[in-house]
Amino acid sequence: MLVSSLGIVATVSADYGDALSKCILFFEGQRSGYLPRGQRMTWRKNSGLKDGSDIGMDLTGGYYDAGDNVKFTFPMAFTVTNLAWSVIEFGQFMGSEKQNALQAILFGTDFLLKATDVSERIVAQVGDGFSDHNCWERPEDMDTLRTSYVVNASVPGSDLAAEIAAALASASMAFQSADAKYSKTLLERAIEVFDFADKYRKSYNGAMKRGDSCPFYCSLNGYMDELVWGAAWLYRATKSQKYWDFVQKNINDILYLGPSYGWDAKQGGVYVLFSQFVMNNAGSNPFVTQADNLVCSLLPNSPTQYLKYTPGGLLTQTGQNLQLSAASSLLILIYAQYLKSFNRQVHCGNVVADASKLIQIAKGQADYILGKNPLGMSYMVGYGNKFPQRIHHRASSLPSIKDHPQQIKCKEGTPWYQSKKPNPNLLTGALPGGPINSDNFSDDRGNAPESEPTTYLNAFFVGVLAYFKGNPN
């Protein structure tokens, strides 16, 4: 079903509090393992209960990364990092949703602790990607290979390990006041895992056998951006001089990659995160300069703008535009707070932007996603009156256990995949890849780039919505 752009931007008044609640609720639909008491997305049931048994470990829990049933530790850790960063920066605006956000982090960190429980060995993935992608079945019914893949001293993965270190270090800060004991556990493990990442330097690409994270989550940027990212978070959590020195020593190795930010590109995050420590001193470069460059890359009329907007106003890239929009919005909102703290502006040639301008840009992106766009369509499932109905998501698109208790085997889900009917289960809060550069959107579960949700996309948007919940005008 192709939803066509009319070229008219609909006017809607966003309810950021409602959107935040739904954005966090989404993570309950991605849970693997035993579902806890209080599970609100009740059409989901326990799944993956034997995960890890092939290597003698309990690897239940954690998150399915997207619309499939594989647990990829690399993007899962990145999801946790962004959820934690959102709580650290904007938790004061979340109200009662802060506890739900912490629970979302907890479900990820508990798995990351399991995945790193053996010294100098990390579980990189649970589930064979090729086997899984050959089927369309509920996670509760999985009969695909649940192979566990690991990295260790012989076949290391610095990118994977360092991202886990960033996740655990940031989460330790998010839990500091809520659970000091758990916070301490997370930080201790973060330090241990970072040491492993630094000691055995190599990308996790190709470290495993057929079915591993590549080609699904290849680390194309290499591992140095993750190492610097992990050290930056450990510095923020510990204020230890050795992590400061690590970042300063290695920052030039990632400069050529630019200020991008995503599950495989941490440079933009490093620049923004570290800018708060150096903004008003002689050591501000390259962090502040590069964070400014990130702003200038998306600032309209900037002489160095290279990111474009759709006619309706959404930031664009090659596919999955909502990821770029939400990630950029989170970074510039955080950076705006640092700019305000130091009473500073960003200069892009003759174009000057202060914190309020960055906030305005992020608000425009948030409002577009929530319905102020040419289609008058919310891109958050369950939010507003018009939203995607056919997202690329196995559990959402197949009947629930309650309605269809019989197992749906590998290929038996194909008719539901091919159906033009709306998904029977509402994956509330899910954000799909989003519209293409013309503002058109194919509400078709067969079009994965436009219709598949991911945990890290929602993680970006949690912080954005939290900010605007507390600062709606």
TrEMBL record:
Keywords: Carbohydrate metabolism, Cellulose degradation, Glycosidase, Hydrolase, Polysaccharide degradation. Residues 416-426 have a biased composition (Polar residues). One of its GO terms (molecular function) is cellulase activity. PROSITE patterns: GH9_2 (PS00592). Its EC number is 3.2.1.4. The active site is at H392. InterPro entries: 6-hairpin_glycosidase_sf (IPR008928), 6hp_glycosidase-like_sf (IPR012341), Glyco_hydro_9 (IPR001701), Glyco_hydro_9_His_AS (IPR018221). One of its GO terms (biological process) is cellulose catabolic process. Residues 16-465 form the Glycoside hydrolase family domain. Residues 414-449 are annotated as: Disordered. It catalyses: Endohydrolysis of (1->4)-beta-D-glucosidic linkages in cellulose, lichenin and cereal beta-D-glucans. The keyword Nucleotide-binding does not apply. It is an enzyme of class 3 (hydrolase). Belongs to the glycosyl hydrolase 9 (cellulase E) family. This is Endoglucanase. The lineage of its organism: Eukaryota, Viridiplantae, Streptophyta, Embryophyta, Tracheophyta.
